[in-house]
Amino acid sequence: MVSTVIPVHPFDLVIFGATGDLSHRKILPSLYRRMLVGQMPAGSRLIGAARSKMTRAEFRKTVREALGEFVEAKHQKPEAIEEFLNAIDYVAIDATGDAGWGALAKKLDEKPDNIRAFYLSVAPALFAPIAARLAQTGIATPESRIVVEKPLGHDLASAKTLNAELRKHFHESQIYRIDHYLGKETVQNLMAIRFANALFEPLWNSHYVEQVQITVAESIGVAGRGAYYDKSGAMRDMVQNHMMQLLCLTAMEPPSKFDPDAVRDEKLKVIRALDPLKVSDTVRGQYRAGGGDGSYLDHVGNPASRTESFVGLRVHIANWRWSGTPFYLRTGKKLTARVSEICVVFKHPPHTIFPQVDTLRGNALIIRLQPNEGITLRVAIKDPGPGGMRLVEVPLDMTFAGTLGPDGDLPEAYERLIMDVIRGNQTLFMRGDEVEAAWEWADPILTAWEESGSRPMPYDPGSAGPIDVYKLTGSDGHLWREIAA
User: Fold this and answer.
1) Helix 260-273 crosses helix 432-452 at what angle (to 10 degrees)?
2) Mean pLDDT over residues 63-76, rounded?
3) Can you give the pTM of this predicted structure?
């Protein structure tokens, strides 16, 4: 299978925070890979913008080192790297002062016909000041795009404030709130599976779906980012944004067309249909010390912390399609394995002619985001051989590694999303009202946890989380899927 490369117009991408980890680890390597496949046209430029005083040559040296560390060895092509570095420029800039803005404007004016995009890979506190400066200096044109990373607020009030600040200077159609989960091939294939085939959509409702499980598990702890994490926790860091988007794409109605606002309208309807969370439908946890490593409390340096490193939820969607079908969500640190997946479990046949069917788990569609992106469908078949009708469960495997072959490459999420910014396609980006609706749903339970004064339940590293998480599914007669890579 050969992927199609869709050309884009020459562009200038200004990366604020270009000397930071996200730029070196994800943004610049992703753009390099796009250049390798011919999707970075001649005349395009990547302009780093940061506080550090350095020359263009010095910045290019850091980019070369980043490519050496974060690009696969088979793509380390000296001529291509030189070509990429020739498209790199740099401006030392003060995000909240006057220094550097004139120099940036001068560079951009050299190519007035290039698309202008501004990637804010900086602390959220700098989003509004940079947006204001871009507008006030005339650097941002009516056709420019601005990209902002999470966290998009800490609660509903701060999210509204941030959206208002951005909209003072940019139209909603220019604002790209990036969520890298939406750039994953498997997530996009979830929409293709549902809306490009007649097979699943008639069954995609509470009449045929028994339960849905969404798991985002990490095997590592929060050491190294404890100060940030202790102010957010699993609910703010994962559920309110990444997992909410996965829930929306799984549960939404078919949009009238594959259009940015049509898709995002349907996602918004899902969020607004969510029943309010009850404390009894939630489980919070903190990992203990183990395996020679410290506990969550050790890693954040706060022995009194009540911030959760694990959260499990039972969620219900109050609409005709999903009434009565529970959605189980769980995410956490220091769990058994690193796994992100959506599992749609279908009900058993209404009448069985095979007694053994009752011992089988039933049909399930498993959408695996990481590792080993792909989709499998669990079905029951006859066990080959004589001796009666013995049934076994087997997966119909749609993993992309098998489809693409051993040398096939799946594009990184950031590759797809950055190119969508250049194209002006907002389908895979969050709209402001989506962000606010998600916070409106999450805020009450966050407040209830805080007011309860209770501490998260401890759990062992390498486990599936606190023992009480099994009650969320068990009370409905269901079982969590095993967390396995």
Assistant:
1) 20
2) 93
3) 0.93
